[in-house]
């Protein structure tokens, strides 16, 4: 098994059967020691973050697979903090797909002239390029198509899947008394038919959630979601 | 006639018959004394810029009107550096529509991971919000619709008009041996039927053009375009 990529929060190993093994680490993104799911740097290390993130990812990916929503998920081993996934090809060098239910974060920084903080948004989907050097710029359907990153047909499927998956996460959080504000996903093309599937993870570090008007930290979110 | 708005490059007066009179000034946008059509500040003042910009605007708006492409233009008086226009309502607090034929400027700053400097683009249309405080953020069709700035139907018309007008400008510049790299437009809703029409101006300050591989300054561009 060969290490093929060292990520900010996960390492990736190639398996002999063609699948990949993701090793979840205890690092979370942020700046100056403060967690920020949209940040491009590792902000802090918290004991147990890897296993907690994987546990929530396992919960959601198994749920999505059972609903027939395509993901790269094969299996997970919580004790080892590892997840086995199918190989996927990225869109260009990677895009992030954001689903928003409340106007916060980068949405508000861009569109604050027209939106108030916390204003409800109806599963609004945005795409940004994974490009640390250029601060993950937002990109339109037309630009994605023109630059050969994502076809118009793929864009439609991606947007539809994003809303579906966002709504699944939102409903599950609501069962635990939390409100999902926004969540970011990654997608890839899987299999010979190159169908679009959810990849990466769905953990506390990918979303912003509030309970009784108070922001819930990723580790606390995962604890609340996974307790009986 | 009342002054109703002092702009960066034009002042706007309300006329008694409901039309508006635009007074073109000798200020151009830029930073630190260097012209930049995408800048939000007045960078420098050049004698004659107002009349030259109006002359080119008159040329293009009369051409567009004769082609049946809707604009706000009524008439122009070059000696006074004034133009009479029909009243128009803006989209939100104003948007800028950019038509790109080569990858330069903010396009390259955002999408440089996928595009090379000067790479041909096929009349690629982008929309940015007029919001100095937030550095004129780019915005998608979905966000424009959701925030009530522009409906999906209006977006389609706007994009179509932008390509048509961009191509008219590109062809006219080509007749003088210049190549249009990009151009920005403003549109508004005019008349009782609120039809979408080109507003503002089409002058050297709105576009980037090259001749024999060399960038052409706005005043020089206007001189080349208007000479016999």
From TrEMBL, chains A, B:
It is an enzyme of class 6 (ligase). This is Phosphoribosylaminoimidazole-succinocarboxamide synthase. The keyword DNA-binding does not apply. Residues 4-215 form the SAICAR synthetase/ADE2 N-terminal domain. Belongs to the SAICAR synthetase family. Its EC number is 6.3.2.6. Keywords: ATP-binding, Ligase, Nucleotide-binding, Purine biosynthesis.
